[in-house]
Amino acid sequence: MYIIPKVKYFTIEGRYSDALPALFEGLKHFEEGKDSVGISKVDINIGLIHYYQKNYDEAIKYFNQVYTTGDASRRGDASLGLGRVYVDQNNYAEAKKYLLDANEIGIKNNDNYIISDCMLLLGKVDVFYGDKEEAEKKFQRALEIGKELENYQGICICANQLGLLRLNNGQPKEAIDYFREAYSVSVDKGIKEETKLSCLGLSNAFNFSHSYDSAYHYLKLNNKVNEELMSEEASKKLAELEASLTAQKKEAEREAERKMEAFNKKVTLYSSIGVVLVMIVISLIMYNRYKMKQKANLKLEAFNNEISHQRDIIEEKHKEITDSINYAERIQRSFLATKELLDANLKDYFVFFQPKDVVSGDFYWASELSNGNFALVTADSTGHGVPGAIMSILNISSLENAVENEKLQPGEILNHTRSTIIKRLKKDGSPEGGKDGMDASLICFDFKGNKFQYAAANNPVWVVRASAGSAEIIELPCDKMPVGKHDKDFVPFTQHNFETQKGDVVYALTDGMPDQFGGPKGKKFMYKKLKEMLIEISKDPMETQKQKLRDAINDWKGDLEQVDDICIIGVRI
Fold first, then answer.
1. pLDDT digits (tens, 9 = 90+) for 356-368
2. DSSP secondary structure string, 56-94?
3. Which long-range contacts (CB under 8 A, 24 or more apart) does 338-343 make?
4. Are the C-beta atoms of residues 3 and 29 closer than 8 Å to each other?
5. Distance from first CA to last CA of the chain, Å, rounded?
6. Which of 101, 120, 197, 488 is the most exposed place for a label (fewest CB within 10 A)?
7. Residue 193 near residue 152 (C-beta atoms within 8 A)
8. What are the CA-CA distances from residue 83 to residues 101, 124, 543 (Å)?
9. Residues 6+ apart with CB under 8 A from 233
């Protein structure tokens, strides 16, 4: 017989109305054959269906029946079932007792299915008692076993739990990775309960990360799966009514047959009465069925109205936030180096600037110095999005203050800027005030003297030079410290001189493009790949170089989210 395998897939897909008839068919078969193992298996599965429907008292009855008087080989499953119910009821002390018993049985019998489920549920108990580190270990172990067994439902449940744990720890990026894993597997395998939970988790994680479009997208998916499950629940109720009707009809037919044999003369009368009764029952059941459908439709309509209301609220909030961010972007752009200023001082150049969000922590700034040199800054402020943009304005203001105080050398400008940033951020109210700042390169071009001076804080400066028909890249050294509070903030920035040659292309950049994930294996773009590309395209017109860089990183990124702001500036000598 294939009763139990059918039940497994019906249960995973949420088709409880299909699972129950199969179980009772199996129970009848096992009772006739006095198969205690089969009877215990059926009782466990009936208990699980009551558990999924949150009929906890019924679930405990069936699990406890196997635990106390059922076949000894199924005691582990019964202990696991009882632990599962008590976790849902927040009775963690009782849950832990049964789960430890089930885990011991699983280890003894080398039953990785039981061990995996025990690790997952004991992890939930650890979360309740505040031991998140131990919970993480158990969830990871459960996920590892699930993958070994190709237990797709277990994989989804574990990934969702790890996502919730990371989200509660304030780690939305890691949470999104786990929720996406659960979403991908659950959709592929039709595990709708876990699809619903992964969508809700992704919506919350993207909302936490201020990615409101993605949050709204997954909220809609969550609501769609919810509606499907509600529809399935209504279908289940109707199926139960139809099963009840069928049973009553069969009983009426058997009664008519018995009376036909004993009382031939009364058969017509009793048959007529039976038909009338059946028709009355059918009429009542059909009426009740109609009322249930009507009630379900009203609930569904109310639910859809609430969803629409929540969607309207989210859309309004999204519009307000978008308008505010767009306004902030216009303010931030007014602080960046203007095209007029760059065109007046740089003959052949490009600026490839692609923020992660509308506003950016990366920025580029320039100034004509009183000694005739032209200063160009490429910087990566702490953070991105709105916090990064606010930090960039503070950083630009501090650079302008340094120039206004007649600091003309790159090292002097960065030293003065660092001092200003630290003083201003001491007022932020935190115990570690002043810890923010920027990574930056500052190049002072002396075009008449065919040279430039520069100082660099973590950000690289590269020069691509043509030589004998080929090209090489010269990587200029930088200081391994930021422009801001740091263990070495008393050490002056190093100032370097570089002699240029006609045709040299100077590149200044932040870490956004090398750190972008993508490609066929979802890995970082890397500095090595970027260097090779710059050597290859360095002879192209500057605007062409910019377009090739944009195409390369967008192709590499594909459907993945951009992880950081991107800023690359190229200047041909």
1. 988 999 999 999 9
2. HHHHHHHHHHHHHHS-GGGHHHHHHHHHHHHHHTT-HHH
3. 341/366, 341/368, 342/366
4. yes
5. 81
6. 488
7. no
8. 9, 11, 65
9. none
